[in-house]
């Protein structure tokens, strides 16, 4: 069981303590401890370099082009290309492909994640004013990327409704205006 757990969990090492009892009498009983579960494989895995990496634009394009949903992959690449061409791309260090997009102030106001799609960020500190933040929210709502009832005062980040090239075009339109 311990070896199984060790192979299934990347960031945790599971160990067990085995106590062997020697002797038959309480006065003569000896307990010998032994650590189990620390295999060579688990030591090698723990000492291996981090699985996190810096995602460069070409690496991102390759990862997004391999998505099972090819239309979604193309939409991600469309946003990536715009972010790179506009100078607003913020590369990331992560296990899975992701990148950020900065607003005109240079603050990350959107992140696009390989496994979880695009997220918009609404912390007031990311915008020159609350009016700028509220305009961003309204533009996302008008583009159909954010629920009409969303309140940025209640939630500082939200996953966007995003799946197609049309959504990518709408998102780029919003990002160009902030």
Explain what you see.
The longest helix has 17 residues, at 70-86. The protein has two domains: 2-47, no CATH class; 53-176, no CATH class. The chain has a five-stranded antiparallel beta sheet with strand order 4-6-7-8-9. A two-stranded antiparallel sheet has the order 1-2. It is built from six helices and nine strands. The chain is of the alpha+beta class. It starts with a helix and ends with a helix.
By helix and strand content, what is the structural category? Answer: alpha+beta
Q: What distance separates the N and C termini?
A: 53 Å
Strand count, sense and closure of the main sheet? Answer: 5 strands, antiparallel
What is the overall shape?
A: elongated
- Runs in which pLDDT lies below 50 for 5 or more consecutive residues are none
Strand content: 15-25%
* Strand arrangement, major sheet: 4-6-7-8-9
Radius of gyration, CA atoms, in whole angstroms: 25 Å
Helicity range: 25-40%
Total individual domains: 2
Order of helices and strands: HEEHEHHEEEEEHEH
**Residue-averaged pLDDT, rounded?**
86
Assembly of the depicted chains = single chain
């Amino acid at each position: 069981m311990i070896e199984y757990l060790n192979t299934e969990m990347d960031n945790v090492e599971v160990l067990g303590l085995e106590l062997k009892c020697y002797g038959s009498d309480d006065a003569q009983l000896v307990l010998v401890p032994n650590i189990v579960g620390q295999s060579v494989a688990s030591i090698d895995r723990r000492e291996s370099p981090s699985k996190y990496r810096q995602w460069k634009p070409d690496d991102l394009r390759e990862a997004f082009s391999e998505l099972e949903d090819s239309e979604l992959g193309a939409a991600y690449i469309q946003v990536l290309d715009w972010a790179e061409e506009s100078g607003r791309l913020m590369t990331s260090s992560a296990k899975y492909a992701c990148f950020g997009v900065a607003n005109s102030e240079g603050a990350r106001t959107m992140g696009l994640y390989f496994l979880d799609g695009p997220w918009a960020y609404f912390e007031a500190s990311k915008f020159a004013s609350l009016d700028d933040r509220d305009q961003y929210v309204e533009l996302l709502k008008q583009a159909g990327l954010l629920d009409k009832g969303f309140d940025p005062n209640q939630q500082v980040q939200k996953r966007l409704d995003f799946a197609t090239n049309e959504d990518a075009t709408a998102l780029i339109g919003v990002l160009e205006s902030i």
